Amino acid sequence: MDELDGNVAAGALREVFALEVTTARGRCDGCGNVAQLGEACAYVNAPGIVIRCRRCDRVQLVLVRRNGSYVLAMSGMTWVELGAK
Question: Residue ranges per domain, the chain?
Answer without folding.
Answer: 6-77
